[in-house]
TrEMBL record:
<protein>
    <submittedName>
        <fullName>DNA-binding anti-repressor SinI</fullName>
    </submittedName>
</protein>
<dbReference type="InterPro" id="IPR036281">
    <property type="entry name" value="SinR/SinI_dimer_dom_sf"/>
</dbReference>
<dbReference type="InterPro" id="IPR010981">
    <property type="entry name" value="SinR/SinI_dimer_dom"/>
</dbReference>
<keyword id="KW-0238">DNA-binding</keyword>
<dbReference type="Pfam" id="PF08671">
    <property type="entry name" value="SinI"/>
</dbReference>
<dbReference type="GO" id="GO:0046983">
    <property type="term" value="F:protein dimerization activity"/>
</dbReference>
<dbReference type="GO" id="GO:0006355">
    <property type="term" value="P:regulation of DNA-templated transcription"/>
</dbReference>
<feature type="domain" description="Sin">
    <location>
        <begin position="1"/>
        <end position="35"/>
    </location>
</feature>
<dbReference type="GO" id="GO:0003677">
    <property type="term" value="F:DNA binding"/>
</dbReference>
Length: 43
């Protein structure tokens, strides 16, 4: 159930970002960069 709520949160955030002009590619780049930074922090 928690995972479903998180998915809905992400969907809402992505829709809001796109509604103000953020592109799909910009969102994907941000998520990829953010993931790489988290990997560095964990090591």
């Amino acid at each position: 159930m928690v995972e479903k709520e998180l998915d809905l949160e992400w969907i809402t955030l992505i829709k809001e970002a796109m509604s103000v002009g953020v592109t799909k590619d910009e969102i994907l780049e941000y998520l990829h960069t953010n993931r790489e930074e988290r990997k560095v922090l964990v090591k």
